[in-house]
Write a structure and sequence with these properties.
This protein is α/β, with parallel strands linked by helices. 55% of the residues lie in helices and 6% in strands. The chain binds iron/sulfur cluster (2 copies). One iron/sulfur cluster binds next to helix 4.
């Protein structure tokens, strides 16, 4: 046998060992007792899974996915499996088999709908999470370029899309600078520390604009942290890299500790809701140090206390229940209650609440480009659900659900890219708020955050996004960053709705580029709001 073949074999054995050891580490006693051994092979779970219903592919059946895990586990971790495997009486899955089956665990959104149909209450999603962790810990998931880049970007810059902190802040910094709206940054003693998942600050610019204005109007005592630009959503739910998830959560806690915040606020992100309410304790091996509050709870409380004026909007609206927020975190009724305060014509989808069909985008469904064709095919079910309500808009409190609903409504001809039908829930709150503010001539209230009211001007500049921008434009990398922003599709989308924005942008660009000494000049520009 050549040296190369011997090395290859040793390498494969190492991968297999790491894989099985990882499964051993992450499968709980409940996984083994119920999810591995409890299946009575009735196949009912298949009737609940959109990936199976719409494709009919055997490997998309929840039980078939789970059976491969059972096979690996029984062969390598049970005494009988070890004997029978060595005698060649049962199969011994090898690394090639693991590779061949890898995709089936990412063509699943870990939505948990199959468990609802199971008479034995088997949690396939729990088994698949352990499987994803094993692919990651054995190194096999690094063979997928998207998963590899999520892990490496998180390791390098703590942002799963690889955006630098400066870029994450500069984009809303430009938009809000143009609109004269302020955001508190690193304010010690603020009650709430607001954090945003990478999908939100990469793909949904409205999060950094409309949500900030709502917080300002509602006089919420909040701050953002310059140290947290991602929440670890993709690391926890796509890569299922437990070690890195732990580091992200600990860094999140340290940032809140440094600021002396009382609460950590999770944005409208289903995965974050699930992580913070359920997974964090498992990942950390102890409770998260801060109480968690959802941004939607804060907005609803502000409405109830009369701090956030709203007038229900006229558009007819349906609601998509995010699996991670409703089926897996039990928050369906809260949203029905909330919607009655901001919407006149609400129309339920069928089925709804915990029985709702998944958006098919979460936990990698949308993020992995190789899933696109199949994801769009199976989203026919979701498009039908939306269409049958006859509503003009569909809203949801989850960033990834929103992105997928936007895509699905466009693919199935219910909307166009110029005429969005999908909305984040906070956008509906925003419309209801702006309606009320307009009627009261109080639109100015969007501009100044609560924490600035008692701060000196110097302190405001030090702790504002405009102050952060002033610093940033003095840095050497700013011209390069501005170039990137100029090509950013989100900047173009914003400019489309705000035609004067390019004039503002070009003015900054011209001044920065023509004067090489922007080191001092930046301080004099004064493009950003006077606070
Ligand atoms: S968790 Fe959801 S997507 Fe995955 S197999 Fe079950 S029903 Fe299908
Ligand atoms: S529904 Fe439950 S018991 Fe039936 S095949 Fe699926 S996992 Fe097994």
């Amino acid at each position: 046998m050549s040296k190369q073949i011997i090395n290859q074999t040793q390498n494969e054995q190492t991968i297999l060992k790491k894989f099985v050891d990882s499964l051993d580490r992450w499968l709980t006693s409940e996984d083994i007792g119920i999810n591995i051994y409890g299946c009575v092979e009735c196949n009912q779970c298949g009737e609940a899974c959109a990936w199976y219903i719409e494709t009919g592919e055997e490997k998309m059946h929840p039980k078939v996915r789970a059976d491969f895990i059972r096979k690996v586990w029984k062969r390598y971790k049970t005494p009988m499996g070890k004997i029978l495997g060595k005698l060649g009486i049962i199969d011994s899955p090898n690394v090639e088999d693991l590779r061949e089956n890898m995709y089936i665990y990412w063509q699943c959104t870990l939505c948990g709908r199959c468990t609802l149909a199971c008479p034995m209450n088997i949690s396939n999603r729990s088994l698949y999470r352990a499987m994803r962790a094993a692919y990651t810990e054995s190194g096999l998931s690094y063979e997928n370029p998207t998963i590899k880049s999520i892990i490496e970007s998180t390791e390098k810059v703590r942002h799963s899309f690889g955006l630098s902190r400066d870029y994450v802040f500069a984009r809303p910094g430009l938009f809000l600078g143009y609109e004269g709206v302020e955001v508190p940054v690193d304010v010690k003693g603020a009650e709430y520390m607001f954090v945003c998942p990478s999908a939100g600050n990469t793909k949904i610019p409205e999060l950094g604009i409309k949500l900030i204005k709502i917080l300002n109007v509602a006089q919420i005592n909040y701050t953002i942290s310059s140290k947290v630009t991602d929440t670890g959503t993709e690391i926890d739910h796509i890569a299922v890299h437990h070690e890195l998830s732990k580091v992200m959560l600990e860094e999140w806690e340290s940032a809140a500790e440094e600021l002396g915040a009382k609460f950590v606020v999770v944005a409208e992100c289903g995965c974050d809701v699930r992580t913070m309410y359920i997974e964090a304790e498992k990942t950390l091996g102890r409770p998260f140090k801060f109480p968690i509050i959802s941004i939607d709870t804060i907005m609803e409380q502000a409405i109830d206390e009369g701090k956030l004026p709203v007038e229900p909007i006229d558009e007819s609206i349906t609601f998509h229940d995010p699996c991670y927020v409703v089926r897996l975190s039990g928050r369906g009724e809260e949203y029905r209650r909330f919607l009655t305060k901001i919407v006149k014509d609400f129309r339920e989808m069928t089925p709804n609440r915990e029985y709702n069909y998944c958006c098919n985008g979460g936990a990698g469904g949308m993020r992995l480009p190789e899933n696109t064709e199949k994801r769009r095919k199976i989203s026919r079910l979701k498009a039908e659900q939306i269409k049958n309500t006859g509503a003009n808009l569909v809203t949801t409190p989850c960033a990834v659900c929103y992105l997928n609903l936007k895509d699905t409504t466009e693919v199935y001809g219910l909307a166009t890219s110029d005429n969005r039908k999908a909305r984040m829930l906070f956008e509906i709150v925003y419309d209801a708020m702006m309606k009320a503010l307009k009627n009261r001539n109080e639109e100015y209230r969007v501009k100044i955050p609560y924490v600035f009211k008692t701060m000196s001007k110097e302190k405001q500049i030090k702790h504002s996004l405009s102050g952060f921008m002033e610093q940033l434009i003095q840095s050497e990398q700013f011209p390069e960053l501005l170039k990137k922003l100029k090509d950013d599709p989100n900047v173009h989308a914003y400019a489309k709705e705000n035609p004067d924005f390019w004039e503002y942008f070009n003015k900054i660009e011209k001044e920065i580029m023509s004067i090489h000494n922007y080191l001092t000049y930046g301080l004099k520009i004064g493009h950003w709001v006077e606070v």
